[in-house]
Every structure is written in C-alpha cells, then in structure tokens.
Amino acid sequence: MMAYGCPADAVDEYLRLGETTALLCLEHFVQGIINIFGDEYLRRPTPEDLQRLFDIGEIRGFPGMIGSIDCIHWEWKNCPTAWKGTLNDINILDRSPVFDDILQGRAPKVNYIVNGNGYHLAYYLTDGIYPKWATFVQSIPLPQGPKASLFATYQEVVRKDVERAFGVLQARFAIVKNPALLWDKIKIGKIMRACIILHNMIVEDERDGYTPFDVSVFAQPESNQSSQVDFTYSTYMPSNLGNMMSIRNRVRDRTIHHQLKADLVEHIWQKFRTNQDFD
Length: 279
Hints:
The chain is mainly α. It is built from nine helices and six strands, in the order H-H-H-E-H-H-E-E-E-E-H-H-E-H-H. It has a three-stranded parallel beta sheet with strand order 1-4-5. The protein is globular. This is DDE Tnp4 domain-containing protein.
C-alpha cells in the first residue's frame, strides 16, 4: 500500500486480508517504524552532520549552507471543503519548528567566511516565495551582468536537491504521490513520517555510493576550510523574552541577508568564473 499507493480494498484477493484489517496493519506498521526508528532517522542534525553538510556546501560554492528548503503538496481526497487552499509555504514556515533550536539557544555554534566577511548563522537555499531572512538565500530573478547570472545558475542548480529528494520520495512511496484516502489527518501525518524515515534509512545506507563530493580533504590539517561547527552544544539559553526576540530578529535580519547574498555572488564569481564562457 505504501509502495504502490493502492487502496486497502485492492489487496484482499491475493493477501486474503479485508479492507479493515489491511488498514489496521498499515496503521500498526507505520506506528512501529516511528517508535523504533524515529529517534534516529527524524532527529535534528548532529554537529558532525552539520560539518559534513558545510563541507559539501563549500565544495559546491556555498560556504555555510546546510541544504535547501521547500514544501511538498500531498493532496487529501477527503479534505474538508473549508480547509482547501489555506496552507502555503509562508504560513507553513510560520508554524515550522525549523529554527526553534536557534531561538532557544540549543543549536551548535557555527562560523564561516564568505568573501572575507564572517557569519554565524547557517542558511538554506530557497525559491523566491520565502522571506528575505539571514537564514535564507534566494536566486536573482532577471539577473543583470555575468556575476549575477553565474550566481543565479549555481543557486538554482544546488537548490534542485530538495526537488529531487521530493521526487525520489514520491517514486519510492506512491502513497504520498497519490491523493490520501484516509479520513484521519493524524494517521495521514504518521504515514508521511514513516515514509520519510524509510527514505532516510535508504539514503544513509547508499549515499557513499553516489555522493560525488570528497569531503576528506577538509580533514587535513592544511585544508583551507572556511566553515566550522563548534562540536559542543550551546549552553546559552535566552533568559527572558527580550533575549529570545533579539535572536529572532537576528534570524530575520534583512541587512545580513542582503550582505550575505552580495558576498556569495562575489565568492561564486571568484570560484567558478573560469568554468564559464560569457563572451
């Protein structure tokens, strides 16, 4: 049912299971996957994970990048009429816990240098709908000049990682590609989490075979690595609401966003301009 997206009453002939029993088996299976493997394969990145992501990002021209972020739409066949169209990337971001560790002082400290300037907040590559925060870097629409064009090309290429991840997830588990047939949104959420856990298990097992980046060079003492993660978790906890709001404002700082983006444009130009022909 998860792999092929077939309804519960389509398996009764060859499995000798009724619709109700098949749904119950699916419910117990996804709950078991979450209970047993959720803590490992739905956890936040460890400092070692962050350093590996930083190393890969630096090789690809984006020091301080930890990945790409986007939303995937999963149609709900039995969705109440009043709920349709009420969610999009922005209000999902407002509900997302993705920056909670930073706001609560639990995230590892990071440092990286872009174009000679130091930064202390990791960032994601996004599309144009996301806000101009210090933790998001978008492409340049209608780029003017070779530097902007080169940056836009590399940003859009690297950002496609998240699109490919969604495509692989839907190809492996057709249940999240087809409209959800259940009535209970909690059970629907558990199915999605179970599919993501299984997907992450496969990625962990196979990634060394298809990852084209060798990050071992950064383990050498003479490496010119510019992105560093403090391997001790931060113990700075905001003591009051004012301190938390100060961190929140730093995450959403538009000035830092524009400065980081300008530095990345220059950094990518210096790193990759010899690979391009702008004649």
